[in-house]
């Protein structure tokens, strides 16, 4: 079966969330005269990401957009680190996730792939977040899938299958592309094709996860451009 469309993870795969969030955090903390390691703060905030979504996935609370979870997680980390920021600074920090920079070369690679394939994000980010990132980086999607479409969070199967259904295609005609092995494992279980390439500095120089493919994915590439070449060559 020929792959006709591709779904993409966004945070970490297409966007460099660590650099984007830490840059805004550095500005906010410096303006308040606070001596805080902004990159460590970004990592601590990100560490609350999965626990926050798990409460929704497990049915312990209704679905809410990721911005709301991020803001709750931010306040949790601020309290843990005994940091007091006014509401306007918290909003500014939270908005950093909607204005993330892409990894170098990602928009150009996506534009090249879109010449031959349908493309869409399959992210846990909200529509507003994905649109903000797209506008900042000059990216164009055929539609926005993922969590806001399914009103659920990856890796629940419905997040993948509803995005596939929006294409009007069969799961085996759609490839999930991510720099995270667990994301691809869930996508394959839902019937999708899978494509992997690493982002070895997503979490910084000491990263020890997702440095290589951990299974026999349909495509394993060195980077996004290589993956596009393999799909379109």
From TrEMBL:
<dbReference type="GO" id="GO:0018784">
    <property type="term" value="F:(S)-2-haloacid dehalogenase activity"/>
</dbReference>
<protein>
    <recommendedName>
        <fullName>(S)-2-haloacid dehalogenase</fullName>
        <ecNumber>3.8.1.2</ecNumber>
    </recommendedName>
</protein>
<keyword id="KW-0378">Hydrolase</keyword>
<dbReference type="InterPro" id="IPR036412">
    <property type="entry name" value="HAD-like_sf"/>
</dbReference>
<comment type="similarity">
    <text>Belongs to the HAD-like hydrolase superfamily. S-2-haloalkanoic acid dehalogenase family.</text>
</comment>
<dbReference type="InterPro" id="IPR006439">
    <property type="entry name" value="HAD-SF_hydro_IA"/>
</dbReference>
<dbReference type="InterPro" id="IPR023214">
    <property type="entry name" value="HAD_sf"/>
</dbReference>
<dbReference type="InterPro" id="IPR006328">
    <property type="entry name" value="2-HAD"/>
</dbReference>
<dbReference type="Pfam" id="PF00702">
    <property type="entry name" value="Hydrolase"/>
</dbReference>
<comment type="function">
    <text>Catalyzes the hydrolytic dehalogenation of small (S)-2-haloalkanoic acids to yield the corresponding (R)-2-hydroxyalkanoic acids.</text>
</comment>
<dbReference type="InterPro" id="IPR023198">
    <property type="entry name" value="PGP-like_dom2"/>
</dbReference>
<dbReference type="InterPro" id="IPR051540">
    <property type="entry name" value="S-2-haloacid_dehalogenase"/>
</dbReference>
């Amino acid at each position: 079966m020929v792959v006709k469309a591709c779904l993409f993870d966004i945070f970490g795969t297409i966007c460099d969330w660590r650099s984007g969030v830490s840059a805004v955090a550095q500005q906010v903390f410096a303006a308040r005269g606070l001596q805080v390691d902004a990159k460590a703060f970004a990592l601590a905030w990100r560490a609350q990401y999965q626990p926050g979504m798990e409460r929704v996935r497990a049915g312990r609370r209704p679905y809410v957009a990721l911005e709301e979870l991020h803001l709750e997680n931010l306040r949790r980390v601020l309290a843990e680190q005994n940091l007091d920021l006014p509401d306007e600074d918290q909003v500014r920090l939270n908005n950093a996730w909607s204005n993330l920079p892409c990894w170098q070369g990602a928009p150009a690679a996506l534009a090249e792939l879109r010449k031959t394939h349908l493309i869409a994000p399959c992210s846990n980010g909200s529509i507003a977040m994905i649109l903000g990132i797209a506008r900042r980086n000059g990216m164009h999607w055929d539609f926005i899938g993922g969590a806001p479409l399914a009103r659920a969070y990856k890796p629940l199967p419905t997040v993948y299958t509803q995005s596939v259904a929006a294409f009007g295609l069969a799961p085996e005609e759609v490839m999930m592309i991510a720099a995270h092995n667990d994301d691809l494992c869930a996508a394959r279980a839902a019937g999708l094709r899978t494509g992997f390439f690493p982002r070895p500095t997503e979490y910084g120089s000491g990263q020890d996860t997702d440095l290589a493919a951990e299974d026999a994915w349909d495509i394993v590439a060195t980077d996004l451009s290589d993956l596009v070449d393999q799909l379109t060559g």
